[in-house]
Structures are given as C-alpha cells and as structure tokens.
Design goal:
By secondary structure, the protein is of the alpha+beta class. The chain is built from 8 helices and 9 strands. About 40% of the residues lie in helices and about 25% in strands. A 5-stranded mixed β-barrel has the order 1-2-3-5-4. Strands 6-8-7-9 form a 4-stranded mixed β-sheet, covered by helices on one side. A hairpin with a 7-residue loop joins β4 and β5. The longest helix is centred in the last third of the chain and has 19 residues. The chain starts with a strand and ends with a helix. It binds zinc ion (ZN).
C-alpha cells in the first residue's frame, strides 16, 4: 500500500531521465535530503509546472513503493520560483554552489531544519541581488556548523590558546582549525591567515542575517577566507565541487 507524504522541498538537482522522466534531488524540511523520480515530468506540465527547476521551493507530494530507492514524486506546487536567480548568470552560478554544498552536507532521511532554513534564506539573498563574496564565506561557515563540521577559528585547535593571544595563526585543513605558532611548528603546509580575516569570518557567522551583506571581506582577506574554507571543504568532500570550480574559473576570466 502506498501512502502519500507532503513536505516543503528545495530542488537541488534535476536530471532528465529516459524519454520523459526526471530524477531529482531535494532538500526537504521534514526528511532531509530526498531523491526521487518524477514520471512523465517533461510531458505533464500541468502536474509539475515549473516546480521542478533547480532552486525552486515547492510543496512536494511523494510516496514510497517497496523499500528504499527513489521516492515517487506525485506532484509539486511552487512556493517560490526564484526567477531572479535564473535570469542572471552570476546569481545562477552562486546558487548552484550553495545548492551543491547543501546536497553534499545533508543526509538522506535525516531532518536538518537549520540547514533547510539556511538554504532558503540564502536563495532569498541571492535573488535579492544583495549577495556578496563575504556572504558566500558566511554561508559556508553556517552550513558547516549546521552539518556538524564547524571549523575552529576562535582558538588554537590543539592547545586552546584564544585567537587574541595568537601571533601568526595558521589554518590546518585536516583538523579544521587554526593553530598557534608553537603548535604549527614543522608544518609548512598550514595556511597562514590573519587575525582580522578570522575575526570577520566569526562575525559573519554570528551576525543577524539582515546585517550580513554589510560585512565585507576585501582583497587579501577575501583571498584568505576563500583559501582556508575552500581547503577545508575540499578535505571534507574529498574533491573540488563542480559548481565551485566553474564559479571560480568564470570569475578569474571575467573579473577585471
Ligand atoms: Zn596552540
């Protein structure tokens, strides 16, 4: 017997499958990450409208037949379409990074409401055109925290010395934390990072969402933030995420 369930869901990934089906990955508020198949999705515009486009926030109806595997998507209604993201290349690329990170750091069947709310808030921010590069780092920090992988930036991860007392902090990607000069001795591969960058990242992690776009990371600080969080995320995921490398390649090419 099948029973239909209902949840709010954000489309993270959408892949055409066969003649008319789609395979989808969602982040839901009730069931964590959810993978499903929408039979006839590309024919039945009425049943799915544009509710299955990447980044759309929808009310999803789905069922499970047999054990495990893909859920069957029975229908979906758009709550937010985020059209303002799709009509702008940079916004689309940033949203793709945010979605891929959320996909990687969410778990199938495991509810994670903070992560769901975080993604919704950031899609909203991207759509509003107020997203900044610093806010991309703040998203990463908040995502890592929601997923249980928060890096230690306010003290030496080894001896616990507070950031204020550390002369030249270095970031250890494998440990996911900074180390003081004494604890980083003989480890040349640790990344030097200024206390100013760390303080700004910590502020951006904790600040009210509304005020976040006003906190900036410029020049060398932006580069340091990119380097340490990029390195840590690559260490956790085991590879460079595709959307992240596309975004950085395009920015390198088109930023004056
Ligand atoms: Zn130390």
């Amino acid at each position: 017997m099948k029973s239909t369930q209902k949840t709010k869901a954000i489309v993270l990934r959408s892949l055409d499958y066969g003649e008319s089906d789609r395979i989808l990955t969602f982040l839901t508020d009730e069931f964590g990450k959810l993978k499903g198949i929408a039979k006839g999705a590309r024919r039945s515009k009425r049943r799915f409208a544009n509710a299955l486009e990447p980044f759309s926030l929808t009310t999803l109806l789905f069922s499970r037949r047999g054990g495990g595997g893909l859920a069957f998507i029975e229908g979906s209604d758009v709550i937010r379409h985020f059209a303002g993201i799709r009509e702008d290349l940079d916004r689309t690329l940033v949203a793709a990074c945010v979605a891929e990170l959320a996909e990687h750091f969410s778990v199938e069947g495991k509810k994670n409401l903070p992560l769901f709310d975080l993604l919704t808030d950031f899609l909203d921010l991207i759509e509003s055109g107020r997203m900044t590069e610093a806010a991309e780092r703040f998203f990463e920090l908040r995502l890592l925290k929601a997923a249980g992988f928060e890096p230690v930036l306010d003290r030496c991860v080894t001896c616990g010395a507070p950031l204020e007392g550390i002369e030249s902090p270095r970031f250890d990607c494998r440990e996911g934390g900074i180390r003081c000069a004494r604890c980083a001795v003989n480890s040349p591969d640790f990344i030097p990072v200024s206390a100013g960058t760390l303080r700004t990242l910590l502020m951006g992690r904790d600040i009210d969402f509304e005020r976040m776009p006003r906190v900036g990371l410029s020049g060398p600080m932006a580069r340091e933030g990119r380097e340490i969080l990029g390195c840590f995320i690559r260490h956790l995921t085991g590879r460079e995420l595709k959307s992240v490398s596309v975004l950085s390649e395009i920015r390198k090419r088109y930023t004056p």
